[in-house]
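Notebook entry, structure prediction.
Reason for the run: the old model in the group folder had no record of what sequence produced it. Starting over properly, with the input documented here first.
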Amino acid sequence: MNEVELSLWRNFMERGTQCLGEEEYLEAEKCYAQGLLEANQLSVPEIVAFTLRLLATVRVRLDNLELAEQDFKEALRICQEIRNAKGMAEAWAGLASVSVKKGMLQEAGRQYEQAIYVYPSSSPPLRLGMLYADLGQVYATLEDWNRAKRAYTQAQALCRSNEFLKGEAELDVLLGELHFRQGQKTEAAKNLRHACQTYIQISDAVALTNTLQYLALLYFDQHEMHLAFECQQRAVALSLKLDYRDGFSEQCYFLSKIVQLLENQEEAKYYLKLSIQFYPHQDLDLASRYQSLAGLYLLSMDFANAERYFLKALILFETFHDELRIGEIYQALGVLAERQERKEGRLSYRVESDDEFQLYQKFTLEALVRLAEFYENIRNFRNALGFYWKALAKCRDNDVETDSIEISVQRVSKRLRRKKWKG
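New structure, fully documented this time:
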């Protein structure tokens, strides 16, 4: 064997594997392709087959499925020719991954079964466990529950017998999901609790956080709110400790929903504000959070904050033209105005804060006029006049004709004075 060519092959393979780990797939493909050229010069079938499998693997990541399938098939042919059982198993598993990507799940199941069948007993048992886990996920997607459970159980047994606790816990989560999808919620909770215990044992805080959330969702689905609260609160606390921000907003949002059902409105506001604080986008999901927070303030008769957050939600719903949700906000603003007048009577004009001024600046002219007309229609002339004045100011700032809005200001001003005189 030429040592120079072998050294070159190793360098290409090491660099390719490093790029693969760093998700630099195009560079990895380039390295493995160069490694394949060197492998062919070495004329060692095991090396050629091994290189083909890695090249095919990165091509699957790049969605270059036809070339990946060709490479895996060639690697399989070589391994069958030299009777390399481990290589055959890996090639079959690679072909199964291509079939999964293509949505050919029945074929993927058959290929994973073949990989398991030829896998040699002398090879690492944990890799066999991974093949069983992959097979279980294919059958779970096909909703072939019995086969999925058998595959997961085989994988978990291999993890347990080889003292691979992390793998055992991951299989508990997969089995929990399997039972949950079948409506077997008691069994699902048992699996997830066992997974949590194992993650605590091996100090895997990130996996523990994710599993606690799953368990909280299961308890929420069963209307066991105190248990759901306990699990979700632990998940949120762990995320804060880990500074684990991915999904933190969703965690807090879900926790606020649990707390609302437990009728602790102040704590629900706290978690909802955290959810808003850490939410990274200006979209409809943020609008929904604002709407929920406004609803909580409305329940506690804090009308100023309720209006503020309803209007924040309205800006986003207007931006994305969600007419259904816009209608919900207008309906809520109507309820708010009615309760506010019932509690406080006719209010004197209040000084607008800087925050409120910035909020109103975000409304389009059309949205301000629409709000003014809405309040005028429900005979809340104070608010109507306020929004007509804001619309008028926006017109003047943008050199837009103001005649129609000035007429509206005069009309509402008269109606408001008439209402005061009658009162």
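Summary: The chain has a mean pLDDT of 91.
The old model has been moved to the deprecated folder.
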